[in-house]
Amino acid sequence: MGTPSGPSRRRCIPWNRLLLAVSLLTFWTPPTTAQLTIETVPPLAAEGSDVLLLAHNVTKNPLGYAWYRGERVDNSQLIASYRVATTKGPAHSGRETLYPNGTLLIQNVTQKDTGSYTLLVTKDDLQTERQTGHLHILPMLPRPVITSNNSNPWEHQDTVVLTCGPETQNTSYMWWINNQSLPNSTRLELSEDKRTLTVFNVTRNDTGPYVCEAWNPVSVSRSDPFTLNVLYPVAQPSLQASNTTVIEHEGPVVLTCLTDETGISIRWFFKGRSLLLAQRMTLSSDNSTLTIDPVSRQDAGDYQCEVSNRGNSSRSDPLSLHVKYKLTPESSSDLSAGAIVGIVIGAMAGVALIGALVYFVYVISTRGASDQRDLTEHKSSDHNHSQGHSDSSPEKFLTAATKKHYSHKSTSLDSIPAGTMDSTSYSVS
Ligand SMILES: *[C@@H]1O[C@H](CO)[C@@H](O)[C@H](O)[C@H]1NC(C)=O
Ligand SMILES: *[C@@H]1O[C@H](CO)[C@@H](O)[C@H](O)[C@H]1NC(C)=O
Ligand SMILES: *[C@@H]1O[C@H](CO)[C@@H](O)[C@H](O)[C@H]1NC(C)=O
Ligand SMILES: *[C@@H]1O[C@H](CO)[C@@H](O)[C@H](O)[C@H]1NC(C)=O
Ligand SMILES: *[C@@H]1O[C@H](CO)[C@@H](O)[C@H](O)[C@H]1NC(C)=O
Ligand SMILES: *[C@@H]1O[C@H](CO)[C@@H](O)[C@H](O)[C@H]1NC(C)=O
Ligand SMILES: *[C@@H]1O[C@H](CO)[C@@H](O)[C@H](O)[C@H]1NC(C)=O
Ligand SMILES: *[C@@H]1O[C@H](CO)[C@@H](O)[C@H](O)[C@H]1NC(C)=O
Ligand SMILES: *[C@@H]1O[C@H](CO)[C@@H](O)[C@H](O)[C@H]1NC(C)=O
Ligand SMILES: *[C@@H]1O[C@H](CO)[C@@H](O)[C@H](O)[C@H]1NC(C)=O
Ligand SMILES: *[C@@H]1O[C@H](CO)[C@@H](O)[C@H](O)[C@H]1NC(C)=O
Ligand SMILES: *[C@@H]1O[C@H](CO)[C@@H](O)[C@H](O)[C@H]1NC(C)=O
């Protein structure tokens, strides 16, 4: 049922005529009339699209059509036949429509539909004519993705292979770097199928972005941009100061980290340690300048800046900041030089006076033999300045007082040399 062997079922056709027709079919050479042809529209179809297998030059008043999958007339491969009404065959998938003019429509094609299709036309004289057409279904290409065989290549060292994937058959590839077609470079090499791009001895200029495009006759698709993270050693930055010798509480000092590098971050170091930002310090938005305003004596010391990128970092040579400051406590207002000298002279006069008093007491006390032992004992044992004990002997009180004064004096004198050693200097303005 459903085969185009219709003539056997036609009434009024004697068997001898049918045999004659078959023999005619076998030996008859077609006249120079129109030749049945099959046109595939479109010739290359995208998966999911609809295609027509157009039957051209079909004989007038045909008795029927039959379409077969493949190149043979094989009933098991019958898609559809048409005589009075369409008859579906075992190869019908539900997507085929056979028109009365012999044309076959296949909807929503898949790559499995690629192949040959044979049309058998039964003419009104029972002769049959057949023709085979071909259908080629191409896939719709997915969006390609660029992958690299080295996500962190080092400049001047590594060779990177970029691949445009996934691999699909009969696909052409194209590449762009920075929105432009590939430059003429000996360091760039495309594979024969252009699916892989090799970048020899990468430089920081090879960062990209890279884009690849995959195309076949029915579709084209472009990748997202891909950026190569090329690592390189950064060059050493240098550090500059608006003034390396400044006076405490006066004017700002501005330290500037100088570097030619781009895409780097900057960190600051003070006396070899990460700088803790005090309230009087501000960094520029890119961290390249450090402003200290007002300057404090605590800011004296060695500064360094460090530039770093993803792979490498480099620190500047140290830069010493000298802060001149006055002897007076930070909290008090400026004292004149005369006042400072007066304080020093006063302290020294006090020390001299106490020294004289100690000598006077000592001379008096040596006259009392019993008291001398006490004083000797005190000198050899009392080194902790303790004043809380209940001993009320006058010699002990004076000794302690003297020691206390000397101790105070030595502290105030120490502050000057200590400040100088700490890369600051004492000054009187
Ligand atoms: C129909 O057949 C004629 C004669 O063979 C041929 O010239 C013509 O191109 C054919 N038409 C089509 C659409 O194939
Ligand atoms: C046959 O009919 C279909 C549907 O009407 C049409 O799309 C197709 O072009 C016709 N074939 C020819 C060869 O004209
Ligand atoms: C086309 O076929 C695919 C399976 O090959 C199916 O998922 C899809 O729904 C079909 N589309 C239409 C419009 O029928
Ligand atoms: C990437 O491929 C290139 C070329 O084959 C090779 O020289 C390089 O070592 C590869 N890199 C890695 C990290 O595998
Ligand atoms: C790729 O093209 C060749 C020749 O054109 C063809 O034989 C093959 O079937 C095609 N493959 C696909 C998946 O389309
Ligand atoms: C690259 O091209 C795209 C569109 O083709 C455009 O939107 C984008 O601004 C371009 N980028 C540059 C850096 O030229
Ligand atoms: C690329 O360079 C080669 C040799 O250096 C040259 O022959 C070729 O013309 C160049 N192509 C372009 C597009 O500049
Ligand atoms: C890559 O660098 C190596 C060593 O520096 C050199 O021998 C080689 O010629 C370079 N390759 C290219 C393509 O520039
Ligand atoms: C990168 O490009 C710039 C400007 O084109 C050039 O001055 C520099 O030398 C290049 N760097 C490298 C490592 O090729
Ligand atoms: C920076 O790069 C240089 C040269 O490749 C290397 O000697 C140094 O160890 C690197 N420094 C860091 C912190 O990675
Ligand atoms: C640095 O500051 C000191 C103290 O204010 C000043 O005497 C000196 O001229 C300044 N030097 C420069 C180069 O501005
Ligand atoms: C500046 O430095 C601070 C730390 O000191 C860091 O958190 C910040 O990200 C840096 N900013 C820039 C732009 O490098």
Mean pLDDT: 76
Text of the CATH class of the domain at 15-138: Mainly Beta
CATH topology of the domain at 15-138, which one?
A: Immunoglobulin-like
User: What overall geometry do the principal axes of the alpha carbons give?
Assistant: rod-shaped
Reported for the largest beta sheet, the result is: 7 strands, mixed
User: CATH homologous superfamily of the domain at 15-138 - what is it?
Assistant: Immunoglobulins
Give the second-level CATH assignment, the architecture of the domain at 15-138. Answer: Sandwich
How much helix, percentage-wise, in residues? 10-25%
- With helices defined by DSSP (H or I, 4 residues minimum), what is the helix count? 4
Structural class: alpha+beta
| Spans of at least 5 consecutive residues with low confidence | 1-31, 330-344, 368-429
Q: What value does the Rg take, in angstroms?
A: 52 Å
Number of strands: 29
What does it look like?
With 429 residues, this protein is α+β, with helices and mostly antiparallel strands. Among the domains are: 124 residues, Immunoglobulin-like (Sandwich), CATH 2.60.40; 78 residues, Immunoglobulins (Immunoglobulin-like); 91 residues, Immunoglobulin-like (Sandwich), CATH 2.60.40. Helix content is 20%, strand content 32%. It has 4 helices and 29 strands. The strands form 6 sheets. Strands 20, 22, 23, 26, 27, 28 and 29 form a 7-stranded mixed sheet that branches. Strands 2-10-9-4-5-6 form a 6-stranded mixed sheet, with no helix packed on it. Strands 1-3-8-7 form a 4-stranded antiparallel sheet, with no helix packed on it. Strand 4 and strand 5 form a beta hairpin. The longest helix has 30 residues. It is rod-shaped, with a radius of gyration of 52 Å. 19% of the residues are buried. The N terminus and C terminus are likely disordered. Bound molecules: 2-acetamido-2-deoxy-beta-D-glucopyranose (12 copies). One 2-acetamido-2-deoxy-beta-D-glucopyranose binds next to loops.
